[in-house]
Specification:
By secondary structure, this protein is α+β, with helices and mostly antiparallel strands. The chain has helices spanning 5-15, 70-77, 102-112, 115-122, and strands at residues 29-35, 42-48, 50-52, 55-59, 80-85, 88-96, 129-134. Strands 2-1-5-6-7-4-3 form a seven-stranded antiparallel beta sheet, sandwiched between helices. The longest helix is centred in the N-terminal third of the chain and has 11 residues, at 5-15. The relative contact order is 0.20.
Length: 135
């Protein structure tokens, strides 16, 4: 049974990803640590990711909702984040893929999680691909 939300974060942290790294349909999960833009408090989000040329890709889909996920708004304000992949927690800089970068990276993420394609059809919002670069 896959993990979700707070339980997913807790099990991932407690086991260095032995539980929670491998997820549904063969996907893998990282933990993204952001700073709340209003509260200033640390927020942790389990997200599907894919490695790409030494960086890590995530998608700000929110299931195709008209508004972006809170974590995306947080990293727009404070792009200095932390990332945890299994037991490796490191500082990273988050940025949105440029228009020239996005098509290949979007396709790479759709290959991992085909539902992203359906999410994009549900919204007028251009769903961003976020690139996490090790600091």
């Amino acid at each position: 049974m896959p993990l979700y939300g707070k339980e997913h974060v807790e099990r991932y942290q407690e086991t260095d990803g032995r539980e929670g790294y491998d997820w549904e349909k063969g996907t893998t999960i990282l933990l993204l640590y952001t700073k709340g833009r209003k509260s200033g408090q640390e927020r942790v989000h389990p997200l599907i990711f894919r490695e790409w040329e030494g960086d890590y890709l995530i998608v700000a889909s929110k299931g195709g909702a008209p508004e972006p996920p809170e974590w995306f708004l947080n990293l727009e304000q404070t792009p200095d984040v932390e990332v945890q992949i299994k037991g490796d927690r490191f500082a990273a800089k988050a940025r949105t893929a440029s228009p020239s970068e996005k098509p290949s990276r979007w396709q790479a993420m759709v290959d991992v999680w085909p539902d992203y394609s359906e999410y994009q059809k549900k919204t007028d919002r251009n769903i961003p691909v976020v690139i996490l670069e090790r600091a």
